[in-house]
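Ticket #4471: structure output looks truncated?

Reporter: J.K.
Steps to reproduce: submitted the chain below (252 residues) through the standard prediction queue, then opened the result file.
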Amino acid sequence: MGKRKALIAGNWKMYTTVVDGCRLALDVAKTCSELTDREVLVAPPFTILSEVAHVLKGSKIIVAAQNVCWAEKGALTGEISPVMVQAAGGSAAIVGHSERRQIFGETDELINNRVRGALAFGLLTILCIGETLGEREDGQTFNVLADQLRKGLASLTGADMANVVIAYEPVWAIGTGKTASKEQAQEAHAFIRGILVQIFEKTVAEQTRILYGGSVKPANIDELMAQIDIDGALVGGAALDAELFGRIINYK
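Returned output as attached by the reporter:
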């Protein structure tokens, strides 16, 4: 993995209310208080972002929004601006998650707007990309990844990429219990890094962190993190259990 610092991110999705979310945040903080060689991030629901950020103040844990708008303010009902995220104590955002693409129909162009908006206000931005089962079975995995990556990063500069993390999440592995093998994950990550070389240049590609997401759990985190191009994990279900997430954070 070279000089890239690992990042273990927990996406809480539409789970947790104030009391259990704050308790989970504090329990997670206890599991990683001594770590210096990796970063930890949690993405609570918008409704408790402020409270979670407050209880984590003083810790090294990054607090992220699960999505973010491109605009500072405006007549955009239901959206949350980067300024609002920051005011609530967040410093990062997840963009383009497969559930936003698959369930809510977000396009690559819309996702690119979100990426650029997040970066314009200084948020660490995690751009998610990944293929469906049908696309993998049709041999389209690499075409899908290249297309989503190029469109999601459109108009960005190499300097912008210092604040961007890519998350590869095969849609067929999210919440299904199925995980890409370490070989499949490494192959996809290496391909993504190669596309980054084409879009930007080798130095940018080598410095960009690429996370794996898709049924990450204690049983597979060690072998995933042993792969040369896997720089961390975007964790869903297991991130809701402080003990399981703590084991993932403390991978060996």
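Triage note (M.O.): checked the attachment and the full token line is present. The chain has a mean pLDDT of 96.
Status: closed, working as intended.
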